[in-house]
Design a protein that fits this description.
By secondary structure, this protein is α/β, with parallel strands linked by helices. The chain has seven helices and ten strands. The chain has a single domain, classed as Rossmann fold, CATH 3.40.50.300. It is about 35% helix and about 25% strand. A six-stranded mixed beta sheet has the order 6-7-8-3-9-10, sandwiched between helices. A four-stranded antiparallel beta sheet has the order 2-1-4-5. The two termini are about 20 Å apart.
């Protein structure tokens, strides 16, 4: 599904290039569950944003489902992201002025899904994530765990081929975090490819394999 070949990410600086990622070689198969770990500043979030096409590479090659992402223009990458990728952030990123129902509806509208089908998909998501009673509430009326449940529901409602998660349990207590990780495990068993960035060895253990980043390099 994903191939990164000799990928660098750097920024221009007064005394040369400032590297965030260097010589990254990585393959992720369809249906895999990969945990990325490493110290702060290792480049984990940058790598995740590159995989999610929210950031571009400086050098090297990135192939997603045999398509050369590194040759695409920004608009093409955005469209690929919209069609195939779901993203879960540590800070939820729900739209505060929209209800739970409307937050779930937003990505479906971006994909051009018609009203009748949208209603069916939203009803399924509300039921699956056990948030039917929360459908008309705003994010500020939900607990942190409930907000993250809605964020995961929103990220997966379009049935993306790839789900990316950046410290998805970082703002949750241990029980809420466990529920989110068990939900990821279930989604993975159903065929969703997942890549998560985490500082937690416990969360990393839910994955099928571990990638260790250090100083912008893959060490393991």
């Amino acid at each position: 599904m994903i191939t990164l070949h000799n990928v660098d990410r750097y920024y221009k600086a007064a005394f040369g290039n400032q590297y965030v990622l260097r010589n990254i070689a990585l393959e992720i198969a369809e249906g895999d569950f990969v945990s990325i770990m490493g110290p702060s500043g290792a480049g984990k979030t940058t790598l995740l944003h590159i995989l999610g096409m929210l950031d571009s590479i400086s050098d090297g090659e990135y192939y997603f489902c045999d398509r050369a992402v590194h040759l695409m223009k920004e608009g093409q990458r955005s469209e690929m992201h919209r069609q195939h990728i779901g993203f879960v952030f540590q800070s939820y990123h729900l739209l505060d002025e929209l209800t739970v129902y409307e937050n779930l509806e937003t990505p479906l509208m971006y994909k051009g899904i018609k009203n009748k089908e949208r209603k069916g998909l939203i009803a399924d998501a509300l039921d699956r994530f056990n948030i039917v009673a929360k459908r008309d509430l705003f994010p500020s009326q939900l607990s942190g765990g409930q907000q993250q449940l809605v964020a995961v529901a929103r990220a997966t409602i379009t049935r993306p081929r790839l789900l990316l998660a950046d410290e998805p349990t970082g703002n949750l207590n241990s029980q809420q975090g466990k529920e989110i990780m068990e939900l990821f495990s279930l989604l993975n068993k159903e065929g969703c490819t997942i890549v998560q960035v985490t500082h937690s060895e416990k969360n990393a253990s839910y994955g099928r394999r571990l990638v260790l980043l250090e100083d912008g390099l893959i060490r393991h």
